[in-house]
Design brief:
With 198 residues, the chain is of the alpha+beta class. It has one domain (21-190). It has 7 helices and 8 strands; from the N terminus they run αββααββββββαααα. It has a two-stranded antiparallel sheet with strand order 1-2. Strands 3-4 form a two-stranded antiparallel sheet. A hairpin with a 4-residue loop joins β3 and β4. α5 runs antiparallel to α7. The longest helix is centred in the first third of the chain and has 16 residues, at 35-50. The termini are far apart.
């Protein structure tokens, strides 16, 4: 790949865009002439992260988090509780510390980050269409009062979002990197933050 890029630059041709760990970078969409179509395509690439089980597990439309790549119900059974941190006596932090903890008995780990909590119920994504998720993300009444600029900062810099790329031993990380996810978010905003139809 490096040789191709160097050859392209030496010949005056534009550099080729990259895909990083399964997530396309914003420059891969530059050839889409219609800004609205490019914006929708950028959002659909953001969905590669948003709809990954690492993210969806904490964005349920009910009161129970999910686990694993199959998004099965959390074991032991837990509920959303007060302020999305779990029920009294069974807070998320009962089991989840401030960082991932490897199992002492073999491969695997208990995930952790501070804070460790569910997304607000208004930001539940499981079972939602791309258009519905997009509308939620843009709506300050459902996204925690965030502007589009706040949303970019959240996607690009928030530590709990970033945990998806560092989920601990035994878990598949979300595709790409948080940096590229942030770049996709900004490019989507810059092109009008268009939502898919449907």
């Amino acid at each position: 790949m490096k040789k191709i890029l160097i050859a392209a630059l030496l010949c005056g041709a534009p550099a080729l865009a990259d895909t990083v760990d399964g997530l396309r970078t914003p420059d891969e969409f530059a050839g889409i002439e219609s800004e609205a179509d490019r914006s929708v395509a950028l959002f659909e690439e953001m969905l590669v992260v948003i709809e990954h089980p690492r993210c969806m597990n904490c964005h349920p439309v009910d009161n129970s988090p999910r686990q694993g790549m199959q998004m099965q119900m959390h074991q032991p059974p837990v509920v959303r509780g007060v302020a999305d941190f779990g029920a009294p006596g069974m807070r998320c932090t009962t089991c989840h510390g401030s960082e991932n903890v490897a199992f002492a008995t073999g491969s695997g780990s208990i995930p952790g980050h501070s804070p460790w909590q569910l997304a607000p119920l208004s930001m539940g994504w499981i079972g939602k269409s791309a258009a519905e998720i997009c509308a939620q993300l843009k709506d300050p009444e459902r996204n925690g009062g965030k502007t589009l600029a706040d949303l970019h900062e959240h996607n690009a810099e928030d530590g709990l979002v970033g945990w998806g790329w560092h989920p601990g031993d035994g878990r598949e990380p979300v595709p790409g990197t948080q940096e590229i996810f942030g770049q996709l978010t900004q490019a989507w905003i810059d092109t009008g933050a268009a939502c898919p139809a449907g």
